[in-house]
Amino acid sequence: MDILDYIWLGIQAVFMGPEAFSFLGVSVSVTIMMVLAGFLFGIVVGATPGLAGPFAMAISLPILISIFGYTPDALLPVMGFLIGIMKGATIGGAVPAILFNTPGTPDAFMTTLDGYPMAQKGQAKKALRIAHFSSASGDTFSDIVLFVCAPFLAIIVEAYLDLPEKTGLLILSLSFIAAVIGGSAGKGLISIGLGLLAVYVGTGEDFYPRMSMGAEGLSRGFPITTAVLGVLIVGAVFKELEEIWRSTGSAKPVHAPAETGDQKLHWADIKNLFPTIFRSAAIGTSIGALPGVGSTLAATLGYTVGRARHQKSKSDDAPDFGDGAPEGVAATEAANSAVSGANLIPVLSLGIPGNAAAVFLILAAESIGGFNPGPAVFRFSPDVVNPELVIAFGIFTCMTIANVINWTIGGVFMRSMGFMINIPKTLLLPAVLLLTLTAIYVQETRLEAIWFALGFGVLGYIMRVLTISPLPFVIAFILGRSLEQTARQAYSATGNDPFFLFNSPIALIFILMSVAVIIFSGRKSKGAAA
Amino acid sequence: MPEKSRSNLYVGLFCVAVALVLIFIWIPLDTKTGIVERARGKFVIGDALAPTVAAGFVLLGGLLLLVFERNAEDQPALGPSKIKFVASVVAVIGVGFAIMRFAGPAAVEVANLFREDPLEYRLLRATPVWKHIGYVMGGTIMVSGIIAIVERKMSRRAVLTGIAAVVVLIAVFDLPFDDLLLPPNGDV
Amino acid sequence: MKKLFVAAAAAVSIAVSAVSVQAQDWTPPGPIKLMIAFAAGGGADTQARLIAAELENRLGWEFIPEQVTGKGGVNLLLEMKDEANDGTVIGMVVMESLGYNLYTADVGLSPEDFTPITTTASAQMGIIAGAGTGWGSFDEMIQAGKAGEDIRFGVMSQRLGELAYLLGKAQGVDFNIISVQGGRAVLNGVTAGDMDVGFMAGIQGPGVAAGDLTILASAMSKPLNQDPNAPLLKDLGVDFDGDAIFMFAGPDGMPDEARNAIAAAISEVTSDPSTEVGALIERAFGGSMNLQGADLDEVVMRNFNDSPVLIEAASQ
User: Fold this and answer.
1) Is the pLDDT of residue A474 over 60?
2) How many domains does chain C have?
3) Measured between CA atoms, how close is A189 to chain C, in angstroms?
4) Alpha-carbon distance B168 to B178, whole Å?
5) Given a cut of 90, is residue B180 above it in pLDDT?
6) What confidence score (pLDDT) does residue A252 get?
7) Which chain C residues contact residue B122 at CB under 8 A?
8) Touching B: which chains, 3+ CB pairs < 8 A?
């Protein structure tokens, strides 16, 4: 069994898996249909202001698990659907941004800066075409980097990192996430600390459920869905509802500007845009590969760098960034779409989720079982088939399929989504809340889970109001148990050496880097405050 | 100009206080094995270590806010109107789920007044109509109640949205799957 | 625990013959809540779900499976103890949950607070080393340990940790015992080289067949199917065994009628290799083990009562 065999098995697992239907004698597998459905659903959700990809992933997960069950066969269809949503939502977000100056997803905000002026000039369709082309290019670039890097990184990690070093790496990731998300190291650390505290309730090695205050409801700990969906989804819905409540009456019907002139994307346009797209795709990919740094930052950075280049090189009569420059749309969309693929590098090679979409992929793997994202996945065992590796290559195949769908029908479908802006959030969000809570209940089947989710929702709301990013909380919740277990194992493995983190040079470097990251960003935010 | 928010100061103080309570009171009292314990002739890591480290993160974060970021620009404020809003939404959800929990069993009790052989809701939790009573009532009240809060008025549109949401969710979660239990049917 | 297997063999024949009659005498008054103490997607979870699916097919009973994991099955037992005892709530655990784990958890409960229903199978528990260690037998590992090599020993439950400690003590080697969550984590640790050796409950099958893993000893009270010549724990100076036996139980006071009907139904599907679950059990465990009734009560109780003896031995 060498690499090529595994890649072939992964592709087969997708194409030869359970059949959905056969068309002209060609059988179409369920997984392919799920990627397609997820992708289209993702575009719809992305085009709906107030809803974003992670949310759609969150609510689909319990339904998908009910359909496909807890078997290894379920992994690829479910993950394929989620990957489809992840990719579709990114391009869907550009639709209302361009047509109505309202970003459909947070990372499409920068798209409004040039997309909407383009639409006002009558070039709405062209702006949408540019957005789609840049987005699909960024996505493809990012996926290729993922396919190449993730297996190598994983193999290096497995070969050179022992238990103490793995502990150090987890600590470094958490420190990095605390330092970079949200721009305040203090708030990042609080978010991480609270997430860890939450996951440590009721768990542990002893039979007494720690920190449960003897309450039976807490003795099993907080289920992961209640914490993740509570903080990320319920909290976000509370925040949106509150904003609508404060601005009641200001919602007016919106109309897309009329279109004039040539709306086609010509080869000459593509040639002009190519450097911008490539630059932004590279930026988005490098940003995405770092855990915790999301697509919003990638979009901002891609846009800023694009603007600097554009001012130097543009001809005099071309519009500036902010006045409807096609390069502005391309710079943003290529960057934010390049994040999703690269973000799976830390997920698949280290088991560390970098953004909310990755969180839900890990949640899916954890709920279904049989696939534990992490370095152990890329074990090229020569004699026995490593099923997890087949799944990993199956996931790569799904991403490629999503890419193909994106290039072929993505643009047409996306351009038809303009009407989603008219769905009133006031009615949609409460229904979404019931849907989220129902989805949690269906998985946990006890009302305590609802109360936990509400509690986490209030926490998520307060954190958002105080600009404490909830993402470090969620990532810490997911990594908390493996951090504790790896540390315990490293301690036992080294013959109960209390200084195991400092006796190995690599682990020591990781720890020093963690401290440095926190100090550096702490000083930076002091500088910003002064 | 409104008074400048000092939320970083308050958040910092709050986190430091919570972390200290956790580290010195709650965690030591509410874990069985301490930071380290002796087992099989060796010292091993106990259940208190990880939460103590986590509380240490909160403490450190709180201190950073107090020391470095106390006077940062644009500090957001958690005003009473926001607290009141979120409290009322949570209250409506709480009422909705309470009704969800007890409407089904109550309906069974009422039905039992007219029956010779009494029914038991627990055994009916997978039987159509009975199993939907709580979800339909509680879900509708929850959704339309939240819409009413946000729109500052109760409208027919809010109630219809609630009913529509409940019907759609039953169609999504309940009709296709035998194994799934809508709330509250896993608790009865 | 030799007696157990003799009793089991006897029980199987009785059970199978009695099935069809009993299963018809009783039908559950409502849907049955099936609590599963194992992580979703794993082998044990699959076994439980397949049993439920097969019984739904055969008898028309309705099952609603639910994961209640954590604390070695004690979470499930605590959750189950106050549930209805009319046969509409059952749980799948390992016997260790009602034994060592329930004893150590110190929650004021004993097996008498539950109704054991039936066992399904006994896991092929072995002591397995990674091929990278180069050890061909148990003795070679001990020699390496005595020569000063650090040996990392992976275990997936506290009780197995005690056994590893006792084993080291009996052999004069101080193992670095690493506890992990779940059997797959031991397999991954040993394959990745993070651990040298560990307890594996049947998951080692393909790896051993392919030569990536080496069987050093059987941790059961009987030889392993895959290597009948590997030494048993009692040959290596440990008086306790690592038998991991899957079983169903219900809340205390379940009527005999319900208990026997459920036991008979489960025995019937698990011992029939033509069913999906029967085939799984045949493949993974070499056949079902359906111990029930008073015999099962006695074994479960003895398991529980042996726990303080093991803890005492391991604390010296």
Assistant:
1) yes
2) 2
3) 28
4) 17
5) no
6) 56
7) 30, 84, 88
8) A, C
Determine, yes or no, domain membership for B126.
yes
Q: Are C71 and C210 found together in one domain?
A: no
Cα–Cα distance between A458 and A454 in angstroms, integer?
Answer: 6
8 A C-beta contact, residue A331 and residue A302: yes
Burial of A222 (0-12, 13-18, 19+ CB in 10 A): buried
Helix (H) or strand (E) holding C180: none
Say what the ipTM of the complex is.
0.94
A119-152 pLDDT tens trace: 988 888 999 999 999 999 999 999 999 999 988 8
Rounding to the nearest 10 degrees, give the CA dihedral for residues B121, B123, B128, B130: -10
> pLDDT tens-digit profile of B73-118?
878 888 899 999 999 999 999 999 999 999 999 999 999 999 888 8
Q: Which helix (H) or strand (E) holds A21?
A: strand A19-23
* Overall number of domains in chain B: 2
- Containing domain of residue B118, as a range? 80-174
Domain boundary among B67, B96, B117: B67
Under 8 Å CB pairs connecting chains A and B tally to 234
pTM: 0.89
Instruction: Give partners of A (≥3 CB pairs < 8 A).
Output: B, C
Residue B95 sits in the same domain as residue B169: yes
- My answer on whether B89 and B153 are in the same domain is yes
Question: Domain end: B67, B99, B118, which one?
Answer: B67
Structure tokens at C162: 């005690």
Among residues C188, C217, C236, the one where a domain terminates is C236
C165 near B CB under 8 A: yes
Q: Which amino acid is at A169?
A: L
**CB neighbours of A156 closer than 8 A, spacing ≥ 6?**
none
SS3 content of chain A, % helix, strand, coil (to 5): 75, 0, 25
Q: Are C63 and C56 in contact (CB under 8 A)?
A: yes
C167 and C214 together in one domain: yes
Residues B85 and B165 in one domain: yes
**Inter-residue contact A56 to A89 (CB < 8 Å):** yes
Tell whether B20 and B106 lie within a shared domain. no
Contact C315 B40 (CB under 8 A): yes
Residue type, A358: A
Please give the Cα distance from C213 to C205 (Å, whole number). 9
For CA atoms A168, A170, A173, A176, give the dihedral sign. negative
Q: Are residues C266 and C174 in the same domain?
A: no
- Domain range enclosing C202: 125-236
Q: C40 CB near a chain B CB, below 8 Å?
A: no
Asked if C150 has any chain B CB less than 8 Å from its own CB, the reply is no
Phi, psi for residue B161 in degrees, rounded to 5: -60, -45
Read off the pLDDT of residues C254-282 as tens digits, 9 standing for 90 and up.
Answer: 999 999 999 999 999 999 999 999 999 99
Encoded amino acid at A28, one letter: V
Please write the tens of the pLDDT for every residue from B52-73.
999 999 999 999 999 888 888 8
